[in-house]
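Field: sequence (string)
Field: structure_tokens (string)

Example rows 1 and 2, in order.
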Amino acid sequence: MQNNSFVDPRSIVRTIWGDPDLVLLIFAGSAAEFALNRAVDWLFFTGEIPRDPIGRLFSTVRYAQEIVFVDEETARRTLDRINAAHGLVEHQRKQTIPDWAYRDVLYMLIDYSERAYALLNKPLSQHQKNELFEVFLRIGEGLYIPELPKTYAEWQVDRRRHLVRDLVYSKHTSMLYESYRRHLGMLRYYLLLEVQALLVPGEVRRLLRLNSNKLISGLAQTYGMIGNGTLQSLVHTLLIPPRYWSDVRNFDKSAYSI
């Protein structure tokens, strides 16, 4: 079974994507950056994320885990379903999602996987960074995304290029953040902004005018040192409304990691 897994059971990717707190941090960062993306108008065509950003988060996590924690054949079927969903939206809008926008999303998942793990644990080793990149490269190839970098070092260069070129504050940015505030409530919305300030690259922080808080930064480091204790659910307790807590617990795939 191990040899037939899409992702090696010992991979750091399974460790990261099987931890509910890390998954939520990945999407907290991605929610900030994608709100700035020049292709964010695609979210407003279907209306799903503005209408229910948390529910859409959960469906995205389920897709990701149906790739990371399954065998090769099942992962390929999930990738085919994602391709079909994108194709349907493109057909309905009679436009094609730009190739660079697909790369932007893939790059976000790589970057925020790395940043989330570093925030609560420690920076990934170079071997782990390469491993993370190689898994998402295979996912990108399964989604037929063209012109993908072939090494982690090449990805770093292209990631920087995309950050500089593809981000802008727009009316859609404001509309998405209003949706986040409406669904989270003021306290959780404020905490989301604080967490995003810790996670996102400088370009994103500047465009959104996010200011990192030393107290929140210290709490995050302390939380990481505590490890798998009774506070392990603190991130989703603080960031996610109670009606979603049971869904978040289902993200826990720690038993799948070795």
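Row 2 begins here:
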Amino acid sequence: MKRSQPTAAKRAPRATEKKPKKGGALVGSQTLVRGLDVVEAVASGATNLAALAESLDLNRSTVHRLAATLVEHRYLTFEPRVGYALGPKLLELGHMARDQMSFPRVARDYIETLAVSTGDTVHLGILDDTRALYLDKIAGSRRVEIRSRIGDRHPLRSTGLGKALILDQPESRWRELYEIENREGNRYGVLLSTWLQRMRTYAKAGYALDLEENEDRIRCVAAPVRDATDSIIGAISVSSAAQYMDDARMESIADEVRSTARAISRAMGWRDDASPPLRVAKRA
């Protein structure tokens, strides 16, 4: 007796026979974004499923699935009674990214020397849309806490480094950047007219100041770094407590900050004759 063959209706579908759902690419992108959101939430301090679910507005099963995949691929780690933490894969990628970014690598020795010379904290950053992105930080020898981290994004209008990054931009763009902060609800104690006058002075001098505008009792002096096209590609800043940064000292170290920025610029292909002679700025 011949065994009957299963009908088409009863045959289990093979994996290769499945058709991709409409909008599958969008679903995949959404999963990727959610996975990245989980990593960022853990970096911000969410260490368990409850905290992650609340932070991301997702159910626990979805968060668990995403987190488990990230743990499997070493982007996160998990320990019972401790929770989730950033994994070694991110450290590996961070080192690789840093090595591949020539600007931080070239600047490193110069900013280390500047930190030793001044005794203050030195930052290195680039323009990231409407923010200053900190790529490196060398702590100073003074017992002063500068609350910043590599990877932080700070306002352009209130930080010395941020202002240095936009010294070449037209005044119309300065106005836009100032107003963007207002629209985002960030309060600022400097009037637009005063800020624009200061920016004009800084642009002529080739360096910028933070007069306790971004953080109470913290001041800094910053200067732009240029490349072979004479374009600003980044900036460095020296930051310290106001007690170590009165007006006289800010003016006295401005040349050293500017000279260090010029040295980094030369290492990045900039030529000294690419720009007119720099003039010392007075506080606006």
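free_text_note (row 2): The longest helix spans residues 247-267.
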